[in-house]
Design goal:
This protein is about 30% helix and about 30% strand. With about 240 residues, it is α/β, with parallel strands linked by helices. It folds into two domains: about 1-95, Ribonuclease Z/Hydroxyacylglutathione hydrolase-like (Metallo-beta-lactamase, Chain A); about 100-240, Ribonuclease Z/Hydroxyacylglutathione hydrolase-like (Metallo-beta-lactamase, Chain A). The strands form two sheets. Strands 4-5-6-7-8-9-10 form a seven-stranded mixed β-sheet. A three-stranded parallel β-sheet has the order 1-2-3, covered by helices on one side. The longest helix has 11 residues, at about 35-45.
Length: about 240
């Protein structure tokens, strides 16, 4: 759902780009899309035949996809020249969405709502419902009505967070600018409490927690939320 730059971790996930049913983007910040070109290229060159990649994201996603293909134009030319059985470049089917159900197949439903990461706009959060369970992917946002709608009675909320006290301690205005468009450990806890969420996962933590301090992040959220709180790490698996 997020093409974050973590190739080593991505390689350990047993899902190959060739078999993806779709790529779903929350927003178009570079730290959430920078591996997208690898997904496109790997799927294209490793598929035995035509294998269009569905890409779903906020308004502007088609423009982003077109720009990515333009940036890959030289590489695509090299591969077409080298592999006689490649007759055309990558195929991508892009859908820009604003809100509503964007995927409903085989008992899995994905619903989008607008979130608030301004000046990055538009941005989306997603709720995945399957087998009577629900998971919300908030990504980068401050608390907002769209996120509250997604979180209603959800089993799990995955929320990007910053730890306000640590960010404020860094003497850099550019770094402190992130305070006005991300949830904090505190506001994430408040969002989870309002929605009746069962488990809150603190994700994409900034600054990265120093090993051994994870309990401090959890405590700040638990001051406003009585459910279970986890601090995410690469390849973390959670049973819902």
């Amino acid at each position: 759902m997020i093409c974050r730059p973590s190739n080593s971790s991505s390689a350990a996930v047993p899902v190959f780009p060739v078999s993806l049913e779709a790529v779903i983007l929350t927003h178009l910040h570079s730290d959430h899309t920078s591996d997208f070109n690898d997904v496109v290229t790997t799927r294209w060159v490793m598929s035995p035949g035509s294998n269009p990649l569905p890409v779903i994201g906020p308004v502007g996603t088609k423009k982003f996809v077109d720009a990515t293909l333009k940036a890959l134009e030289i590489d695509i030319g090299y591969r077409l020249a080298h592999h006689q059985d490649l007759e055309a470049g990558p195929e991508i089917v892009t859908t820009d969405v604003e809100q509503g159900v964007l995927y409903d197949t085989d008992g899995v439903k994905v619903t989008a709502e607008p979130t608030d990461h301004r000046p990055v706009h538009p941005t989306l959060g997603f709720r995945i419902d399957a087998q009577g369970k629900s998971v919300v992917i908030a990504s980068d946002t401050v608390p907002c009505e769209g996120l509250d709608r997604l979180c209603k009675d959800a089993d799990l909320l995955v929320q990007t967070v910053i730890r306000e006290s640590l960010v404020k301690a860094v003497p850099s205005q550019r770094f402190q600018d992130i305070l006005d468009y991300h949830a904090t450990t505190i506001t994430a806890g408040q969002t989870a409490a309002r929605g009746g969420v069962k488990t809150l996962v603190l994700n994409h933590c900034v600054p990265a927690p120093v090993p051994g301090t994870e309990d401090e992040w959890v405590a700040e959220a638990n001051a406003h939320f009585t459910g279970k709180v986890l601090v995410a790490n690469d390849l973390l698996r959670i049973s819902v």
